[in-house]
Every structure is written in structure tokens, then in C-alpha cells.
Amino acid sequence: MSTPLPVQPPPIHEPIPGLYQVSMPIPVPLRAVNVYLLSGPEGWTVVDTGFHTAETEVRWRLALDALGIGFRDLTAIVVSHYHPDHIGCAGWLQEQSGAPVLMLRQEIPQVERFWRPGSPAGEAIAAFFEAHGMPVPEAGPLGGHHLEQVARVTPFPRITPVDPGQELRLGGWRFQVHWAPGHAEGLMVLWEPDARFLLADDLILATITPNISLWPFSVENPLDQYLSSLGRIAPLPARLVLPGHRAPIGDLAGRVGEIVLHHRDRLDRVEAIVRELERDGGPAPVTGWDVNLRLFGPQPDLFRSRFAMAETLAHLDYLAVHGRLRQEEGNGSPARICYRTV
């Protein structure tokens, strides 16, 4: 007989009657993702799922037991975006429950690119970062690192698309579907206009800023998209914002203002770093890797190295699109893409 895994039940809170926030531990520096369970007369809805690991399976069983329900009580599984801490367990939960997995139509191509078994996404990310100056010893392991994440997003779910502007009846509420690209191209947030609460996922977080990344499959200028999304969501008269990580937020517009200011400051800092590197390095072209090291410094693991580099590139991309920097060929540098001040 196998010994049960020494897994503790995840913390469960009820910020709104009938809506439960489950803090699901995840094996990355964020430590936990908020998943939500919404009760209703026709069954229960899950919003986001955590990585798929053996420990997460146990925690899901413990969470459902604590709420007095089973897998067959789940009638819908909503996934806010393609990141593995949000979609990872969706396929497994679908197998257990038979419930449909709902995602915004605009996000499904990213799910296919990143998580469909056999996808070359890891190699594409490594090549993309090398083109921006990341040395081969640092970029090379990213392919294997990505395969580790693919294993945490299996089995691959059968996805039912949702469209912006659609109304979803989930639990006992009627939600308006909003498309909020930036953190992910097809990030879905759910607004309940009667109860005035927002399931914001990773659009807005209370004590940290969501990662805004430029990947080889990204649309141009994801940071611009993100700031535009914040501008569209900020006027909602929310009493409560329920995020994808950490604590709920009471002041939506105030927190949006803080995040916008953070990115304005970071854009100024990135532009200044390019100027400093030009001054210090003479005619040598400035690469994204150079800026990343000056902005974030060396990272202790592949997970953080990957996201620091992608965040740096998103800010460089914004500055280039808006004419504050010039992107050019590497001119003999190992990097194919470099940056200059204008």
C-alpha cells in the first residue's frame, strides 16, 4: 500500500458569500495561485486551476472535501489565461468532472503554441533570447525548462471558446466577459455588475506588478496593450477585486494608478540604462541581455531568468515602437537585435 503524500489542505476563504478563494501552492517563486470556486443552484464553477502535479491533485480533493462537494458537482472550469499556474490542472479537472473548459477565443492560439505536446516553444524562446544577446549557456537550458512546464499542463484540455462581451452565468452570478490583453494576449477578466466585484486574474495584483513579457509568439508591444487594458478596466465601480495571486484589492482605480506609474518609471529607467551602456561601451551595440543584467541583475534560477529577460524586452519594445529608442541589426555583434538611443 502506498503512503499518502504529506500534503496539507489549501487555505480557503469566502470573500463573498458563496464564492471561495483557494490558495493553491505552486512550485515557483510566487508560491501560490488563487483559484476560485463559485457555488450556484445548478452546480459549481472553478476559475483557474494551478499547476498539474501530484500534490495539486491531492489539494484539489482536500479543497472539494472541505466544501462538501465532489468533482461531479463542477459544471464549468474557467481558465483566465494560458500561463501554467492557471491552466495546468484544467485538463485533469475536466477528466474528473466532465465539465467544459472555457477560455477566451483570443487566448486559445497561445495555449496551442505553448502547451500542445510536441510544440517547439522552448527552442523558439531560447533562439529569441539569443537573438537579443542572451549567451548560449544561459539560453540553451530554456528548451528543457519549457518541457518541464509542458508536463505540468497535461492532459491537454478540450477548450470551449468564449467571446468578449459575452455574458456567463457562473455559480449564482452573471458575469460580463472582458478581454484585457497585456499580461497574456487573451487574458479574460470577469465583471459582475450587480454585486460589483471583478475576478481580475493577473491583470492587477495588490502588492506586486504582473509580469509583462515579450515572447517570440507575442504581438507587438504587449506593454502598450497592458496599459490600455488597465485604462479600460479602471473605471469599473468595483467594490472588490479578486486577483490571481495574493490579497484582494479594495481600490481598483487607485491600484491601477500605482501600476501605471511603476511602468512609466521603469520605461524611463530602461531608456536611461541604454544611454548609460552606450556611454560606457562606446560603439558596441546595446542588447536586451545587457539591459536585463543592468535592470534586474543575475537571477538564481531559470524561471526568474526567463521572466526577467522577457519583461526587459517588453519595455524595450515599447520604447522602440514609441520612438524613444531605435531597434537595429547587431552589426557583427553575437546578438541579431540591438538598441540605440535616438
From TrEMBL:
Alphabetical list of PANTHER family matching this protein: ENDORIBONUCLEASE LACTB2, METALLO-BETA-LACTAMASE SUPERFAMILY POTEIN
Domain of life: Bacteria
Domain (Metallo-beta-lactamase): residue spans on this chain: 32-245
Pfam families: B_lactamase-like_C, Lactamase_B
SUPFAM superfamilies membership: Metallo-hydrolase/oxidoreductase
Name of the featured protein: Metallo-beta-lactamase domain-containing protein
InterPro entries, sorted: B_lactamase-like_C, Metallo-B-lactamas, RibonucZ/Hydroxyglut_hydro, Sec-metab_biosynth-thioest, WH-like_DNA-bd_sf
